[in-house]
Design goal:
With 369 residues, this protein is of the alpha/beta class. The strands form 2 sheets. Strands 3-4-2-5-6-1-7 form a 7-stranded parallel sheet, with helices on both faces. α2 runs parallel beside α3 and α6 runs parallel beside α8. It starts with 9 loop residues before the first helix and ends in a 5-residue tail after the last strand. The chain is built from 16 helices and 14 strands. Its EC number is 3.6.4.13. It comes from Clostridium chromiireducens.
C-alpha cells in the first residue's frame, strides 16, 4: 500500500516522497480513508507511529485556502507538541498555501493577535492560550469543520478536561472530530463519545514491535552510587544522541549540574524552563548539537526525534506504561535502540512489575565503579 493508493493528490504524494515518506504507517493507512470520508474517529497509537501525518494529510486535502474562515483546529497538551505539529504542517504547505497559526503559552500574544488579522485556516493550540483568544474574541470557531484532539489521554492526565469542554462549546455541533491518543482508557472514551457522532475505532498496538527492536539492560546500584554508575555507562556507550529520564524537575536540575561539572554535552528540559529557551533546546537537540537531553516525562511526551540511539532511565518510571513510552523514543523506523535503567533496592517491586508486564527478566549490566 502506498499513498497514491490511499487516494491522495499527486502533489501531496510528491511532497511526502521528497521528504522520504513513501509508504504509510499502519495508523495512516487505517485512519486516512476514514477521515477522508468525513467520519469521526477515535485512534489509539503510540508516539512515533506517524499519527501526526495521519490527521494532517487529510486536512491538507480538504482545507480551502480561498476561504477566510478557521476551518480546522488541532488541540494538543504541550507547547513542544504544538511546535512539532506546526513544523510538520509547514512542510506540507508546498501543496496548499494555507495560513497556520500556532498559539501556545509563553509566546507573545501580541504577535499572535497581529497574525490573526490575516485569514487563518488552521490553528494548532494548547488549551489555555486558545481559551484566552476565545475570551478576547480574537478567534472565532463558529465555522470550524474539523477538530482534532491530539494526545487525549495526556490532555486529561494534565487536568485539561474543563478547558477542552469549554473550547468544544464554541464550535458548531456539526463538525468532524478526530481523537488521537496513546492509550484508550475509559476517561478518553467518555470524553470522545460525548461529543462524537458514531466514531470509527482504530487501534494500532505498537509496544510489542517497539520492544523487539530495543536492547534493554538494568544496572542494580544504590542511590548514592547512581551518579557514578550512570557516568561510567555513558563513557562506555558514548551514544550519538540520548535522553536521560528523571522523575522530577528537581532531579533533572541536580543531574544536569553534576553532568555539566563532569563535562558532558547535556541540557535539561522541563516545564519550568521558559518557552523560547525550550524551543532553542529542542532545535539544538534535533540538530544533534547536544548529546544528552535530561528530561521529565511530561517534557519529553510526544517528542519524535530521529537519531535517538539510547534511553537512560536514571530514575525508574512510575508505571509500566511510562517505561514503555520512555524507551519507545528509540528503536524507531526499523533502527535498533538501547535502553538502560538504574535501580536501587527500593525500586525492586517496580522492576518486578515491569518485567512481568513485558514478559521477561531484563538483562543485568555489571558496572565497575
Amino acid at each position: 500500500m502506498n499513498f497514491k493508493q490511499l487516494g491522495l493528490s499527486d502533489d501531496l504524494v510528491n511532497i511526502l516522497n521528497n521528504s522520504g515518506i513513501s509508504i504509510p504507517t499502519p495508523i495512516q493507512e487505517q485512519s486516512i480513508p476514514i477521515i477522508n470520508q468525513g467520519k469521526d474517529i477515535i485512534a489509539e497509537a503510540a508516539t512515533g507511529t506517524g499519527k501526526t501525518l495521519a490527521f494532517l494529510i487529510p486536512l491538507f486535502e480538504t482545507i480551502n485556502p480561498k476561504s477566510d474562515e478557521v476551518q480546522a483546529l488541532i488541540l494538543t497538551p504541550t507547547r513542544e507538541l504544538a511546535l512539532q505539529i506546526t513544523n510538520e504542517a509547514n512542510k506540507l504547505k508546498e501543496v496548499k498555501d494555507i495560513n497556520i497559526l500556532a498559539t501556545y503559552g509563553g509566546k507573545d500574544i501580541g504577535s499572535q493577535l497581529k497574525k490573526l488579522n490575516n485569514n487563518i485556516h488552521l490553528i494548532i493550540a494548547t488549551p489555555g492560550r486558545l481559551l484566552d483568544h476565545l475570551e478576547r474574541k480574537s478567534i472565532n470557531l463558529s465555522k470550524l469543520k474539523t477538530f482534532i484532539l491530539d494526545e487525549a489521554d495526556q490532555m486529561l492526565f494534565m487536568g485539561f478536561k474543563n478547558e477542552v469542554e469549554a473550547i468544544i462549546k464554541q464550535m458548531p455541533k456539526k463538525k468532524q472530530m478526530l481523537c488521537f491518543s496513546a492509550t484508550m482508557d475509559s476517561a478518553v472514551k467518555k470524553l470522545a463519545y460525548r461529543y462524537m457522532n458514531d466514531p470509527a475505532i482504530v487501534s494500532i498496538k505498537k509496544e510489542e514491535v517497539t520492544l523487539n527492536a530495543i536492547k534493554q539492560d538494568v544496572v542494580e546500584t544504590t542511590d548514592r552510587n547512581k551518579r557514578d554508575a550512570l557516568c561510567k555507562v555513558l563513557d562506555e556507550d558514548n551514544p550519538f544522541m540520548a535522553i536521560i529520564f528523571c522523575r522530577t524537575k528537581r532531579r533533572v536540575d541536580e543531574l544536569e549540574v553534576i553532568l555539566h561539572t563532569r563535562k558532558y554535552n547535556c541540557v535539561k528540559l522541563h516545564s519550568d524552563i521558559p518557552q523560547n529557551k525550550r524551543e532553542r533546546i529542542m532545535k539544538s537537540f534535533r540538530n544533534a548539537d547536544i548529546q544528552y537531553l535530561i528530561a521529565t516525562d511530561v517534557a519529553a511526551r510526544g517528542l519524535d526525534i530521529s537519531g535517538i540511539t539510547h534511553i537512560y532511565n536514571y530514575d525508574i518510571p512510575e508505571n509500566v506504561e511510562s517505561y514503555i513510552h520512555r524507551i519507545g523514543r528509540t528503536g524507531r523506523a526499523g533502527e535498533k535502540g538501547y535502553t538502560c535503567m538504574f535501580v536501587d533496592p527500593k525500586n525492586m517491586r517496580d522492576l518486578d512489575e515491569i518485567e512481568q508486564t513485558i514478559g521477561f527478566k531484563i538483562n543485568r549490566r555489571i558496572v565497575e565503579i
